[in-house]
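I can't quite decide. Please look over this sequence plus structure tokens:

:::
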Amino acid sequence: MSSRYGLLLHRIIHHGWVVMLTGFAGDRTGGYDTATIRAHLAGYDRAWADYRRLAERNPSCATLYVPQAFGPRNPDGTYDTDPDHGMRQSVDRYRALI
């Protein structure tokens, strides 16, 4: 279970970073490689679907990663997610170009 979880999390992050880096390059140059962004958006979405399915089908699966940034630490030591920042928001910014 841990290996599968790690593989899927790696895929999410890999595809998300390629979308963000390719999009950032387009921001700098004014020319967007939409084919690369589109391909990695598909990989990102597929990895998220597989990740969610893994957690749904396996109650012992950890579900620690969320696509938002974490905000300040709460008094009980936990963190809330920050819905305005994180990988999802960055990826979705470039999704709007496609």
User: Anything to note?
Assistant: The chain has a mean pLDDT of 86. The CA atoms of residues 34 and 98 lie 7 Å apart. The helical segments are 2-29, 34-57, 87-95. The radius of gyration is 15 Å.
